[in-house]
Amino acid sequence: MNTETKHTALHTMTPWIVDNVKTDGGLNITYVATATDEQISPIAKVTSHNASANAAFIVRACNTHDELVAALEDAYQALSEEMGFYQSTTAIKIRAALRKAKGEVS
Q1: Where in the chain are the domains?
Q2: In this structure, are residues 30 and 19 in contact, taking their beta carbons and an 8 Å threshold?
Q3: 66-76: pLDDT as tens digits
Q4: 70 in Cβ contact with 64 (< 8 Å)
Q5: Measured at the alpha carbon of residue 12, what is the angle toward residues 32 and 72, in degrees to the nearest 5?
């Protein structure tokens, strides 16, 4: 599912994968990519001393983003209805996290 951001740009469909490519010169290059049965399409090149770990973190975060946002929205709604906690510190933190996750604030 594509998610609209504050700037109405659509991101590449998930799931994403980590793709490690070894060049002819023996250099390892790490990409975040999409994969179909036909091809692997790079989304971003990750360059750092922890490239594989950073790419894996990006992939986990992006692949679970929509599910985590939906679960947090459901939890917020359930707690608000059952416990009336709209102004609690936890409710404020949840609303702030959801705004960030949806790209409504930077």
Answers
A1: 16-101
A2: yes
A3: 999 999 999 88
A4: no
A5: 95
Its pTM stands at 0.74
Closest alpha carbon to 13 in 37, 43, 39, 54? 43
Contact by Cβ (8 Å): 43, 59: no
Measured distance CA(28)–CA(24) in Å, rounded: 10
pLDDT in tens, 21-48: 877 676 778 899 998 877 888 899 998 8
Q: Rounded to an integer, what distance in angstroms lies between the CA atom of residue 57 and that of residue 48? A: 13
For residues 79 and 96, give the distance between their C-alpha atoms in angstroms, rounded to a whole number: 16
Helix axes 51-83, 89-101, angle to 10 degrees: 130
Residue pair 63/92 in contact (Cβ under 8 Å)? The answer is no
The β-bridge relationship of strands 40-46 and 16-22 is: unpaired
Q: What are phi and psi of 98, to 5 degrees?
A: -65, -40
